[in-house]
Design brief:
The chain is of the alpha+beta class. It has helices spanning 47-57, 115-118, 152-155, 162-178, 193-205, 225-229, 238-249, 277-287, 291-298, and strands spanning 2-10, 18-20, 23-26, 29-30, 42-46, 71-74, 86-89, 92-99, 120-126, 128-130, 135-139, 142-150, 181-189, 210-214, 235-236, 262-265, 268-273.
């Protein structure tokens, strides 16, 4: 989808913004704007929301920047923009950090009542310049997940991969609830150190967001998942797996014997789950309570 920029604005102080012939965008935000170097450095609004506001309130015509927006566009209309979506113009990349913001009752300017509800707030990933008449290409974010099942027998078709399928189903349901689009790449491999390393390498080189493995988290001679994954971790997140083991281990002591880990490798979060479908259901139920927050943390986005 391509959007047309109607106007650009900035202001050195909080409140409404004012017309500018062009704005320069750096990593910090709009150069010379009060919101540069904040958690919401660049703001945008679609003309359709302004038109709706004017119709409801019988308001006079509004001026450029009066809704405290840096960028006013047309063409989004009722599109449901989400965090991590991008707007691109040449080398300029704007990534959405949030839609809407907290309502501060101390403000009474006209834009205050619109921006907290429908304003789009972004950070700058690629620098550039914008002016009225420029076009922005809207690119919705599609999260990519890889689910790797380690099983000699399942890889030979001796039995169905139930645990990998369950991870995919629960992950899809979770992302649907968030309103985020998800693409899942499922692989079934034997208990092979080399093949697991290759799958993880492929995922990180292709900027996957999440990797799940199932199987190989025990201490048997064919259980190689942990010995492959642990040395690759950039950051381990021990609390998740410790919590799961203690919660279910208090009822079923055998649950304490799984050595699953969670952490980050390159661009991706990674979780190593047991091979049991029942254990997978328990793990996924707990993992999804923090997954969205971890995705924001991994992206260095402050959404508090």
């Amino acid at each position: 989808m391509e959007l047309k920029i109607i106007s650009v604005s900035l202001a050195a102080e909080r409140g409404r913004k004012y017309h500018a012939d062009k704005i320069e965008l750096a990593k910090s935000g709009v150069i010379g704007d009060v919101h540069a170097n904040t958690s919401r450095p660049v703001s945008m609004i679609d003309q359709s929301h302004i038109d709706t506001f004017k119709k409801i309130t019988s308001s006079r015509s509004t001026e450029t920047g009066e809704f405290a927006e840096n960028i006013r566009v047309e063409g989004l209309n009722d599109t449901k923009v989400k965090a991590f979506d991008r707007f691109v113009h040449n080398d300029l990349i704007l990534e959405v950090s949030q839609v809407g913001k907290p309502f501060h009752s101390s403000f009474r300017e006209i834009g205050h009542y619109v921006m907290p509800r429908v304003g789009i707030f972004m950070r700058v990933l690629g620098q550039g310049t914008l002016q009225a008449g420029d076009r922005l290409n809207y690119i919705p974010k599609v999260f990519k997940a890889k689910v790797v099942t380690l099983s000699d027998r399942a890889s030979k078709g001796i039995y169905e991969d139930v645990s990998g399928k369950l991870i995919g189903e629960m992950l899809t349901k979770y992302f649907d609830k968030l309103g985020w689009e998800l693409a899942i790449d499922k692989k079934i491999i034997p208990d092979s150190r080399e093949q697991l390393q290759a799958e993880i390498s492929h995922a990180t080189q292709n900027n996957y967001d999440i990797i799940f493995t199932t199987g190989g988290t025990g201490i048997g001679s064919r259980d190689i998942t942990l010995s492959v994954v642990k040395p690759l971790l950039d950051h381990e997140i021990p609390g998740i797996m410790e919590h799961i083991r203690m919660k279910y281990g208090s009822l079923k002591p055998n649950a304490l014997l799984s050595g699953g880990v969670a952490g980050t490798i390159g661009s991706a979060l990674i979780y190593t789950l047991p091979g049991s479908a029942k254990a997978v259901a328990e793990y996924m139920q707990e993992i999804t309570t923090t997954l969205q927050h971890l995705i924001f943390m991994k992206a260095d986005m402050d959404v508090h």
